[in-house]
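TICKET: design request
STATUS: open
ATTACHED STRUCTURE:
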């Protein structure tokens, strides 16, 4: 089966074939030349090493000093091109030697033993002679086994460079040759082809633009002459057809116009109804969020006002109790001193009897112990009230509703104290805090998120369970988890729990705005609110927030 190829493909294929043949020949020549050069360099280095070894081993071999010979061999064997060096005495026995094993570690040549088989790319040898009695006396010989590792590595590296450079040059030459052939040969052919194609589509005004004097130019001028003749005949026929079809065309245009007007009216009506539904939905969502925001703001302002009003009486009660504690301690000290005077009243039995009766009636010993306990419990109660007031102020933060650095674990504690009355009868609270760093945020809004998640967790527990508050952080984010052991959320509800007005609670028990508002607050902080739940086992909500404040799209911080 023959394969159809365009002229463009044939030209491109021919260009590539020619360039690749030339490039292959050049690459083979370059490879052979580089290989010869590298072999010459390795041979020269090996002979230099041989000469150095022959000179350096004269004295150790003459003195039978194997330690010095091993030191010399340790230096030379480190060359990458040397695999083994063996020093033989004048009886051809191995005097010293070093070689590289399979792991390229340097080991000694076994004296008198059998060495493993080795592959020497090239082996050099030389006599070690010393001057004795004015004669050159041979005291041993040296064998040098060369490896081709360095040569192969250099050739592989060079081959990779040749292949890459050859491909780049070949690609450039192919493009150049193709461009030249396209401009001189293919472009005129394509011009004629396009003119013929337009003529086939009944465009009788189609003409070529060739102006050359070669065969292709002559072909183009012949085509133009033929097209002009056919165009003259077709114009007369077209005029007749045009006159007869003009009336039908006008009628069809009127029908099409009427149909388009009717379709446009229907489409506009449908679009208007859809937009109206979207606007109504947005209005309902905005109204619900506004009502909930105003409600939370009012609660926050009320909490802050109550906290401010309670602070004053709590302050003077705490001060008075501390003063009362000091006064009572002074009175008890005075009583203790008076008790020491009982022995001095032994002559006044009636007075001593009256004092003992008063002590017994007042139960002075119990009173001394109980009064201190009562004052301590009262001060503890004042501190608890003060802590609740501080938590109310921290939760509301109406005076700090702007971005500022805050500790989210402190916010969790304040919020937990606020909603404790909702939780304490339903669940135990376990805290797994990681010691979060402070982040820049609107703390009062995040406290609202924590409150919604804690209250929802308590409502999800049917009898009694566990609520876990967990925190963590990494280099870029911090996260807070609220986990409960409640009834869980059905899979079909998980995708809708953040929708406004969607709730699984009974009528009158929830508005469906809590999680929606929480989701919006977390989104405005450029964070994420995720949920994982399994029916019957519980639910985990995770709030993830960036550690650094994220600018809005307009360049301003949100």
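STATUS: resolved
RESOLUTION: sequence designed for all positions
ATTACHED SEQUENCE:
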């Amino acid at each position: 089966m023959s394969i159809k190829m365009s002229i463009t493909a044939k030209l491109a294929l021919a260009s590539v074939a020619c360039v690749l043949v030339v490039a292959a020949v050049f690459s083979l020549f370059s490879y052979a030349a580089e290989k010869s050069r590298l072999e010459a360099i390795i041979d020269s280095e090996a002979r230099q090493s041989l000469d150095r070894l022959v000179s350096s081993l004269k004295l150790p071999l003459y003195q039978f000093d194997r330690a010095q010979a091993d030191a010399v061999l340790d230096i030379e064997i480190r060359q990458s091109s040397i695999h083994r060096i063996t020093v033989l005495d004048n009886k051809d026995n191995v005097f010293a030697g070093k070689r590289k094993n399979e792991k390229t570690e340097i080991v000694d040549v076994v004296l008198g033993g059998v060495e493993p088989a080795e592959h020497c790319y090239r082996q050099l040898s030389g006599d070690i002679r010393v001057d004795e009695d004015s004669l050159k006396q041979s005291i041993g010989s040296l064998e040098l086994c060369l490896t081709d590792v360095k040569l192969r590595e250099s050739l592989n590296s060079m081959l990779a460079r040749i292949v890459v450079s050859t491909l780049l040059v070949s690609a450039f030459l192919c493009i150049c040759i193709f461009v030249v052939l396209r401009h001189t040969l293919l472009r005129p052919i394509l011009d004629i082809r396009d003119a013929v194609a337009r003529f086939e589509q009944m465009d009788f005004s189609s003409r070529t633009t060739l102006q050359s004097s070669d065969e292709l130019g002559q072909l183009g001028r012949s085509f133009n002459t033929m097209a002009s003749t056919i165009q003259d005949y077709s114009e007369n026929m077209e005029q007749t057809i045009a006159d007869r079809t003009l009336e039908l065309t006008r009628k069809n245009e009127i029908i099409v116009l009427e149909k388009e007007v009717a379709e446009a009216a229907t489409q506009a009506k449908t679009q208007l109804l859809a937009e109206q539904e979207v606007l109504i939905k947005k209005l309902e969502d905005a109204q619900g969020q506004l009502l909930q925001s105003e409600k939370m703001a009012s609660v926050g302002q009320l909490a802050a006002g109550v906290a401010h009003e309670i602070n004053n009486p709590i302050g003077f009660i705490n001060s008075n109790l501390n003063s009362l504690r000091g006064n009572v301690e002074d009175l008890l000290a005075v009583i203790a001193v008076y008790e020491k005077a009982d022995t001095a009243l032994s002559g006044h039995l009636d007075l001593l009897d009256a004092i003992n009766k008063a002590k017994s009636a007042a139960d002075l010993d119990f009173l001394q112990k109980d009064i201190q306990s009562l004052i301590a419990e009262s001060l503890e109660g004042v501190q608890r009230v003060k802590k609740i007031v501080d938590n109310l102020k921290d939760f509301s933060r109406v005076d700090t509703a702007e971005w500022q650095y805050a500790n989210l674990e402190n916010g969790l504690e304040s919020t937990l104290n606020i909603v404790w009355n909702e939780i304490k009868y339903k669940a135990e609270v376990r805290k797994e805090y990681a010691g979060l760093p402070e982040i820049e945020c609107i703390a009062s809004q995040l406290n609202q998120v924590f409150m919604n998640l804690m209250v929802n967790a308590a409502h999800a527990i049917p009898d009694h369970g566990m609520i876990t508050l967990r925190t963590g952080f990494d280099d870029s984010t911090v996260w807070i988890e609220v986990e409960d052991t409640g009834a869980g959320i059905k899979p079909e509800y998980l995708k809708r729990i953040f929708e406004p007005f969607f709730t699984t609670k009974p009528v009158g028990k929830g508005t469906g705005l809590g999680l929606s508002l929480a989701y919006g607050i977390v989104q405005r902080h450029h964070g994420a609110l995720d949920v994982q739940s399994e029916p019957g086992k519980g639910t985990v909500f995770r709030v993830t927030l960036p550690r650094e404040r994220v600018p809005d799209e307009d360049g301003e911080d949100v």
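CLOSING REMARK: The chain has a mean pLDDT of 76. Residues 7-169 form a domain with the Beta-Lactamase fold (CATH 3.30.450).
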